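Researcher: Next entry in the queue.
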Amino acid sequence: MKCLQTFILCVLATSLFAQAQPNELTFTPHWLPQAQFAGYYVAQEKGFYADEGIVVNIQHPSASVNAFQLLADKSADVISLFMVTALQARSDSFKIVNIAQLSQHSALMFVSHKKNGIEKLNQLDGKRIGIWKSGFDEVPKALIQSNNYEVEWVPILSSINMFMIGGIDAMTVMWYNEYDQIINAGINPDELNIFNFADYGCDVPEDGLYCLESTYLQRKPELEKFVEATMLGWKYAKNNPDEALDIVLAEMKKAHIATNLTHQKWMLQCMLELIEPGTKNVKKGELAETDFHKTRNMLKESNHINGNISFDSFYKPVLK
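Model: Structure for this entry, 320 residues:
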């Protein structure tokens, strides 16, 4: 009898101890440490997650395992992802939902050397365009397809070398990343022609926060705290950019990633602009229904997705 009582007391103590522990979430950004994810690092460093009563483990993807795979095998509870990638997953019957939309605008653009004489978008017809092998190709290809251009897509990694040596006529770049790398490599902005996708009807929101539908149903309170603290992290980064950059550089150093302050400062400034809704009738962190329909329809027309995904099934906001 005494043994049974002891056992029951141990079980109760264990149960109470488990309940007393902070709720824990694992978050995976969709790329390696850089200022693109400054708000998360700041929220971690400044204790905003802890203030909400949650423990957040930030794990980055590797060269062989991406954020989506970590979500699929439940090694991550929440990931950041481009909306086009999430919509394709949802189209393939993968139960993924958007719980917050961080980036409100597209940072994608084509860039070309002015000396090549490509002054207008239609002059890309018949040209060689560099595009990443690792994804993010849906919107560039949809833009070209919608204009009935024929181009040769040249797969590249994250390097700008092919563009710098003239091996391609144009390159797909991110405003906050590769474009600035080109400038830092010694090319003046007035030597380049840029074609912002947003100027051609493709202002597609990019970085959003995603989880499994089952996680949303089971852990909505923790997810709400995570998003609230994350938004506070971005707000702090905006008001204290130098401190935020120090936190980013420390994170990159831990991951042994070479960088420089100038480039990360540019990236942070760009990300803070992309987070702003501007004229959109939404708050920071919200997904505009018009943006959802525009992106879904673009992917349907370019045969990247099938089916009619509804806004309500895809978007499950946790922000109040």
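Model: The CA atoms of residues 150 and 180 lie 28 Å apart.
Researcher: Noted, moving on.
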